[in-house]
Amino acid sequence: MTLPALADLDGVEGARVLTRLDLNVPVADGEVQDDTRIVAALPTLRWLGERASVIAACSHLGKANGTPDPAYTLAPVAPVLADALGRPVRFIDDCLDESIAEAEPGTLLLLENLRYYPGEKADNADFAAKLTSGFTHYVNDAFGTAHRAHASVSAAPRLFAPGKKAAGFLMETEVSALSRVVRDPEQPFVAVVGGAKISTKTAPLEALLDRVRSLLIGGGMANTFLKAQGHEVGRSLVEDEMLSTARAVMDKAADRGIELLIPTDVVVTDALDHPTTIEVVAADAVPSGLLVVDLGPESRQRYSAALAGARTVFWNGPMGVFEVDAFAEGTLAVATAMAESSGFTVVGGGESVMAIRRAGVVDRIDHVSTGGGASLSFLTGDELPALAALEE
Ligand code: ADP
Ligand code: MG
Questions:
Q1: pTM, to two decimals
Q2: Is 233's C-beta closer than 6 angstroms to any atom of ligand 1?
């Protein structure tokens, strides 16, 4: 099975195309705060714009939950999209509005938040039929929601025959970069996993153990590994119910001869806001009143060295509470080591992507995935509902 691409579409000239985008951008006071996702959708919209007759773009935004909610309107996206594309965008304040099917040739529509209808999250066939009515073709460029069986990415594409549906450029790029990491990665493959909790990343961690040569653990989840090794971690973020998971990862790594790096020294503090104490201590000597918030210098050195020889690198999850400058060194060290790597480097995640932006190294990473949850699902080897529906 291969993912159908835009070039595989039959009869796209003059077609009426529904395109599912990821326009889930941060909005405050009616203004788009970060246009990254809008910009990422432009290549597909431009390609369609040169061929199709009518294009309707649809997306979800925020936590709208089955009912119209002005806090999550897509309206502020329309002018930003129009500016970026250099063509008018007509906003339709109901994604099932009857006028959509009658839009005249040359129109680009932006439809209101899909999640104003409960049918979207429920993968409802009836909702999908209404959403797609009047369209001859369907294009999905929303990699960020590819792991969710929601109507606009699952039931909707099933209503289009092969040749009438395709992945957009962003989706194609995401899938090909992540495939290079998942299928037969060039060795040595080194994965770096951090972030807040091990519980949200158990499946990808286990899947990585089938492929990597080295696994580097950081962030809050490293505390659970330290505790599983028998060390005290003071007041640190730790998940006691995940100690057995951490042990299982350590055992599996040992069985397979995988190099597993856990911090040997850490930065500890008394408080995240207004800290009065910041110290580096050995990972087996964390004072009881303090919390672990970053890799120490020796660990940074070890992690950077492990990354230096890698031919493939995947990174998800910051190494510390990088939002606070004093606790960002570990995360910056990994970002820098990846930027300097001559191997194929991929970063996926939410905060992880923010971190490489802050480090100023986005341009030196081979692929920065826009889909946090979707990239982890892909890495785990799960079937992504949106991809399956396009391939059917
Ligand atoms: P991503 O979105 O990249 O997948 P996560 O959502 O799993 O990453 O985790 C990101 C968060 O983890 C960050 O906001 C960071 O502050 C937090 N974090 C990292 N290290 C620690 C730590 N030692 N203690 C508490 N929180 C941490
Ligand atoms: Mg996150």
A1: 0.92
A2: no
Active site residue 350: yes
- Report every protein residue that has its C-beta within 5 angstroms of ion ligand 2: 350-351
Ligand in closest contact with the CA of 375: 1
* CA of 201, nearest ligand number: 1
Distance of CA 267 to the CA centre of its chain: 28
Q: Is 106 known to be catalytic?
A: no
pLDDT in tens, 333-376: 999 999 999 999 999 988 998 999 999 999 999 999 978 899 99
Q: Is the dihedral of CA 288, 244, 372, 173 positive or negative?
A: positive
Q: How far apart are CA 67 and CA 293, in angstroms?
A: 40
Residue 315 phi/psi, 5-degree rounding, is -130, 130
Please check the confidence at residue 1 and state whether its pLDDT lies above 70: no
Helix axes 36-49, 77-85, angle to 10 degrees: 50
Q: Is 165 a catalytic residue?
A: no
